[in-house]
Amino acid sequence: MQADGLDGSEEGPRTIASVTEEPLTALDLVSLLGTDSDGAVVAFEGRVRDHNRGRRVVRLHYEAYPEMADEVLRDIAREAQAQYPVTQVGIRHRVGTLDVADVSLVVAVAAAHRDPAFDAARYVIEQLKARLPVWKKEEYADGSSEWVESQPVEGE
Amino acid sequence: MQADGLDGSEEGPRTIASVTEEPLTALDLVSLLGTDSDGAVVAFEGRVRDHNRGRRVVRLHYEAYPEMADEVLRDIAREAQAQYPVTQVGIRHRVGTLDVADVSLVVAVAAAHRDPAFDAARYVIEQLKARLPVWKKEEYADGSSEWVESQPVEGE
Amino acid sequence: MSEAFSVRVLLYGRCREAAGTAEMMVSLPPGGVVGDLVERLSAESVVGFGMESVAVAVNRKLASRDHALDPSDEVAVIPPVAGG
Amino acid sequence: MSEAFSVRVLLYGRCREAAGTAEMMVSLPPGGVVGDLVERLSAESVVGFGMESVAVAVNRKLASRDHALDPSDEVAVIPPVAGG
């Protein structure tokens, strides 16, 4: 959780994958990724919306099983690197209390060409939504709050 | 070309579209885009690769018809906003001499949900590759150079 | 395990709130498996909202219901996730 | 136009290099259209590499070959583009 989760050399395959309590922006990853042979970097920011399922959201609380989450993020990043012709993948997921418009997730992928960079970024997001041990409690304008549990994890 | 090409209010539809001689990064657009109802921002950086079609590239020269290019970028941004449920679109294309790893293009799209943000970003890139009056000359390691003209523009 | 034993179980999200604690010791019968653990937690209302939607990680990897547990395992209950 | 006239033509990329200038005046016959302009430029080797791959913008909008030109138009030759 504290570690940067960074490995790989500057010009080789690189993976950055971690959950963090620090504020996130896409820049954190975009500026770190890419080799001279990469023509494309795709980045994604997930942000806290002010509404969900018809209710007005004022705040979110993200909770992780951090040791497992870091491993799952690294697994997903490496799967993306194995399945698509991309060079470097970065993923950071924030935990703690987030306000509306705060960034909860950053994914960035560098590749020689743009199509695999887009495909790999979407793969990463879909996989982490299904597998990442992170939980989210929404706090609403009326003072109530609720766990949002969209995705039962598929066991073995 | 000097103008920011920015219009729209903070919370409404916003379009940023211009060619520029200034260095670019995704951050320039990502930090400007997004409303409180947006859960997703997708950003793309096109960067100068050190190789193309088997040759070692050392430098690129981008040339634009700037007045028309700004109009085409604005058209494309508005088409993306009309065709996909996205709120804000930003596009900047650099002109002038670029070194390897320099950013030639930044596209960013904000939306409530990620799928349309990804789709709109790809739409923007595909359209500008087909329509934007920008030309590129590659300079190679052996000292030679060549115009890269991949895409005849479809007239009316 | 040929004797009854206990494992330390980490709880998150809804399960943590239901249990009122982020961590608990759970007693299991000899040869206790993940499925036994889930049933025990269900009986104690920690996963009362639907046992079948809960996964269990053993040493940070998802484990099947018939996975045999050991007192030294790091066990975690994984209710439906909501990352992103 | 019932008389011969000239238009100012902006040149880019390969066309600019072939012409040795970024801008030139091109004379056209009475009623001259975009197609006449392209033929004239081709005869002068400005677009010698392939007339059919060249588009023409009139007042910053793409124009068809039969689009009638006016001396006040801002005309630009658009060789195949390579943005991105």
Termini separation of chain A: 26 Å
Give the CA-based shape of chain A: elongated
Uncertain ranges of chain A? 1-10
Low-confidence stretches of chain C: none
Using only C-alpha atoms, the radius of gyration of chain C works out to: 12 Å
Query: Count of helices of chain C?
Result: 2
Count of alpha/pi helices of chain A: 3
Average pLDDT number of chain C: 92
Q: SSE order of chain A in H/E notation? A: EEHEEEHEEEHEE
Q: How many beta-strand runs of chain C?
A: 5
* Portion in helices of chain C: 10-25%
Structure description:
The complex is a heterotetramer, with two copies of chain A (156 residues) and two copies of chain C (84 residues). Chain A is an alpha+beta fold. Helices cover 26% and strands 38% of the residues of chain A. In chain A, helix 2 runs antiparallel to helix 3. Chain A is elongated and about 50 Å long. With 84 residues, chain C is an alpha+beta fold. Chain C has a five-stranded mixed sheet, with helices on one face. In chain C, strand 3 and strand 4 form a beta hairpin. The longest helix of chain C is centred in the middle third of the chain and has 10 residues. Chains in contact: A-B, A-C, B-D.
Give the tags:
heterotetramer, A: 156 residues, alpha+beta, five-stranded antiparallel sheet, 3 helices, 10 strands, 38% strand, elongated, disordered N terminus, C: 84 residues, five-stranded mixed sheet, 2 helices
Question: How are the elements arranged and paired?
Answer:
The complex is a heterotetramer, with two copies of chain A (156 residues) and two copies of chain C (84 residues).
Chain A: E1 6-7, E2 14-20, H1 26-30, E3 40-47, E4 51-52, E5 55-64, H2 66-83, E6 88-94, E7 96-99, E8 103-111, H3 114-131, E9 134-140, E10 145-148
Parallel strand pairs in A: 2-6
Antiparallel strand pairs in A: 1-2, 3-8, 4-5, 5-7, 5-9, 6-8, 9-10
Helix pairs in contact in A: 2-3
Chain C: E1 5-10, H1 13-19, E2 23-28, H2 34-43, E3 55-58, E4 61-63, E5 74-78
Parallel strand pairs in C: 1-5
Antiparallel strand pairs in C: 1-2, 3-4, 3-5
